UniProtKB/TrEMBL annotation:
Residues 1-21 form the signal peptide. SUPFAM superfamilies: ClpP/crotonase, PDZ domain-like. It comes from the Bacteria. This is Peptidase S41. Residues 247-399 form the Tail specific protease domain. The keyword Cell membrane does not apply. The keyword Signal applies. InterPro entries: ClpP/crotonase-like_dom_sf (IPR029045), PDZ_sf (IPR036034), Tail-specific_protease (IPR005151). Keywords: Signal. It holds the Pfam family Peptidase_S41.
């Protein structure tokens, strides 16, 4: 198989994540001084756009940085003709970037672009390369009652060898208080600031005192956690479940970052050697990442015969570039199902190694609203080659779009540049993939609507989503609990301690999602 040029493998389908340490976005502050003196300095002229390459990396003049953003967006943004061309002078660099997006709504009345953000390049390189970031190593589930009465923060999972795991703060533990401030009832700005500072540490070495109630415990306990740089483990809990009807493989896949290539290779090798009959992929907290990783995983699930002469995804850019990728300058070519390693981290796995395969004609996926982007592309691509996808959990985030992370002046910007469709030409799932017992449209997937079960460990066969997958496998129907899903009372946001996982909106909403708000203003 001929692989695409390496540069075409780097577009990101990044799920909207809570980039916890990056909420500032890396742009200049509101005190930016637009030094526009001198006749040679570039100026804003409405409707006129300089080539953005001539404006790049001129970091001493904020106006030039903003004009670079403006021209770059006008050239590569998927909906460039829906950006209002504003004079950048009154805005900081970060503020101006926030405005360089569409304000239009989708056909269903939702915001068309919920995925516009930036972060420091240094932090982005750490996150993308290894998932490294400052934190305690625990992903949090934040449930804020729609009535505005109380909030609850629960640990969704922790990273191995992290401060949280070493202190025994694991899935299902409820954070009762942070440095003496009640999570449920804090409602003044000072208390909210303490909660945010403790839950989302910005510096290594920061110590925070938590009162936690562990899963099934009758009493609370005090735990002091010290923030440190935590490296995420994107593939965890690979196991084989022996059932009366054969072997079922299970793996927890948290993010499509570079180190996931080796983790997936090892996991799928283990499951292939075990000759599993079915596979459950737990992507409930996977907000996306490298499309090439998703393509490799899809190939390992389906195998040679199912993927031969088919494509993983076809991408398209804005109408200025019907046949060319505006970022790489190369002709548009579909991304194949990739059947060998690419060597994202050669110290872990060299390039050119043939990938293991399971050769399955169906796969079970466990999802939440935090399942996003490259994870959705994985589901869509498999459906495009008639591998049956059974979805257990909640509706996914809805992001059939991607971007090339682009650096300018030590800030990396993420703006929607392309959209993708599968081998059958389907890619309209902007409202997410919906598990349904009676699918009627292409964005509805056979399966069962269920809430995330924080009362059992991930990979536990009694955990609601995994249990439902095993039940569906035997009965081709949903368990009775699937009809009892209750969505109305709570709004859940999944908060990753360090990598991009779930529910990023634009810069401002990203901050609102990662930062707790006073009860009086909660909706």
């Amino acid at each position: 198989m001929q692989l695409p040029n390496r540069t075409t493998l780097m577009p990101m389908m990044i799920g909207t994540s809570l980039l916890l340490a990056a909420c500032g976005g890396g742009g200049s502050s509101s005190s930016d001084n637009d030094n526009t003196s001198g006749s040679s300095s570039p100026q804003w002229v409405q409707g006129t756009f300089a080539n953005y390459s001539t404006l790049a990396n001129q970091c001493s003049v904020p106006l030039t940085q903003k004009l670079w953003l403006r021209s770059w967006s006008n050239d590569t943004y998927l909906w460039y003709d829906e950006i209002i061309d504003r004079d950048p002078a009154p805005y900081s660099v970060a503020e101006y970037f926030d405005l360089l997006k569409t304000n239009e709504l989708s056909d269903t009345g939702n915001e068309k672009d919920n995925f516009h953000f930036s972060m420091s390049t240094e932090e982005w390189e750490l996150l993308n390369g290894s998932g490294a970031s400052v934190g305690y190593g625990m992903e949090l589930s934040l449930r804020q009652a729609s009535t505005g009465v109380s909030r609850q923060v629960t640990v969704a999972y922790n990273e191995p060898n992290s401060p949280a795991s070493e202190a025994g703060v694991s899935r299902g533990a409820i954070i009762v208080s942070v440095d003496g401030v009640s999570v449920a009832n804090a409602n003044d700005s000072d208390s909210i600031d303490i909660l945010n500072a403790g839950l989302f540490p910005s510096e290594s070495g920061q110590q925070t005192v938590f009162i936690v109630r562990d899963l099934n415990a009758q009493t609370d306990r005090s735990v002091t956690l010290t923030a440190q740089t935590v490296v995420s483990t994107p593939v965890q809990n690979t196991k084989t479940i022996q059932t009366a009807n054969g072997k079922v493989g299970y793996l927890q896949f948290n993010s499509h970052i570079a180190t996931a290539e080796k983790g997936l290779y090892d996991a799928m090798t283990t499951l292939s050697n075990a000759q599993v009959d079915d596979l459950v992929i737990d992507i409930r907290y996977n907000g996306g990442g490298l499309l090439a990783i998703a393509s490799q995983l899809a190939y390992m699930v389906a195998g040679d015969s199912a993927t031969e002469n088919h494509v993983f995804e076809r991408t398209s850019f804005n109408d200025k570039y019907p046949t060319m990728d505006p970022v790489t300058g190369q002709a548009l070519t579909p991304m194949p199902f990739i059947n060998e390693s690419l060597g994202f981290n050669t110290s872990l796995l060299r390039s050119g190694v043939t990938l293991p395969t399971l050769n399955l004609n169906r796969v079970f996926v466990l999802t939440t609203s935090g399942t996003c982007s490259a994870s959705e592309a994985l589901m869509n691509a498999l459906r495009g080659i008639d591998v049956e996808v059974i979805q257990l959990g909640d509706t996914t985030c809805g992001k059939p779009y991607g971007f090339y992370p682009t650096d300018n002046c030590d800030t990396t910007y993420f703006t929607i540049q392309f959209k993708g469709v599968n081998d059958k030409g389907f890619g309209e799932y902007s409202d997410g993939f919906v598990p349904s017992t009676n699918p009627t449209v292409d964005s509805e997937v056979p399966g069962c609507a269920l809430d995330d079960d924080l009362t059992h460990a991930l990979g536990d066969t009694d955990e609601t989503l995994l249990s439902a997958a095993l039940y569906y496998r035997d009965n081709n129907s949903c368990p009775a609990t699937a009809t009892a899903i209750a969505r109305a009372p709570a709004k859940t946001t999944f908060i990753d301690p360090g990598f991009m996982l779930q529910d990023t909106r634009n810069q401002n909403v990203l901050q609102n999602n990662r930062i707790l708000t006073p009860l009086a203003s909660e909706q």
